[in-house]
Design brief:
alpha/beta, seven-stranded parallel β-sheet, 15% strand, 8 helices, Rossmann fold, single chain
Length: 252
């Protein structure tokens, strides 16, 4: 490891936005660890990223909503990667789908799973890995969503709104230790698994028509925003939500 190489952890790093974030830090020559639930996806992503970046890519399976797996992941980082981490990007999450006529018990499982993957997992990662973040100079970037501000997806929007509140709280407690905590709120981002087969051509046209810049977002748009918030140039940015949505939230 060279003196300028940082240790960067990206959860949900095997696909879409997470993989683009990992690629952006690799371009700087950083040492990047991607985490996620699916080993095969992580392995394939690491192989792809390894051939494209200047840094070093590592991967480790971890369900961020599972406390035992989070502890095991952090222990692995300490033993196999580095004692100190420079950047933590909490990107893991996603939207779940359930039938409108589901039972109350099914709705409860759906709600708890959505909160676990999108909000609780972020909290657990900060709790477990936080003590190993560089002081001063550590960076935490949490991925929220435009849904936190304009609704949509019921429990998903609630979970992502929770990420914003958690970011504000952590910025206050960790700021005095030299660690900044900020959030990114993406708008509609194509090229990910988020929409699945629900993004039809007609829906895409309707969505893009609402975005003032006239195009959907790309994973690379979010990666650049994360890279900025993790940079030395953003050392005075703390407790902020950076909206990356082409003007969709406030422009219309």
């Amino acid at each position: 490891m060279n003196e300028t190489q940082r240790i960067v952890v990206v959860t949900g790093g095997g696909t879409g936005i997470g993989k683009a974030i990992a690629a952006r830090f690799l371009a700087d020559g950083d040492r990047v660890v991607i985490a996620g639930r699916r080993e095969e996806v992580l392995r394939d992503a690491a192989a792809e990223l390894r051939s494209a970046g200047n840094g070093e890519i590592l991967w480790h399976a971890c369900d961020v909503g599972d406390a035992e797996q989070v502890d095991a992941f952090v222990a692995w980082i300490a033993d196999e990667v580095a004692e100190t981490v420079d950047v933590l990007v909490n990107n893991a999450g996603g939207v779940l789908h359930i039938a409108d006529d589901a039972s109350t018990a099914e709705m409860a499982r759906y709600a708890n799973s959505t909160l676990s993957g999108n909000l609780v997992g972020t909290f657990l990662m900060v709790h477990a890995l936080g003590p190993r973040l560089r002081r001063p100079g550590g960076r935490i970037v949490n991925l929220s969503s435009i849904a936190a501000f304009r609704g949509g997806g019921d429990m998903y929007s609630a979970a992502k709104a929770g990420v914003v509140g958690l970011t504000y709280s952590l910025a206050g407690t960790l700021g005095p230790e030299g660690i900044t905590v900020n959030a990114i709120s993406p708008g509609v981002i194509l090229g990910t698994e988020f929409f699945g087969d629900r993004m039809t051509d007609a829906r895409r046209e309707r969505t893009v028509a609402q975005v003032p810049v006239g195009r959907p977002g790309r994973p690379e748009d979010i990666a650049e925003a994360v890279h900025y918030l993790a940079s030395p140039g953003a050392s005075y940015v703390n407790g902020e939500v950076l909206h990356v949505n082409g003007g969709w939230l406030y422009g219309r």
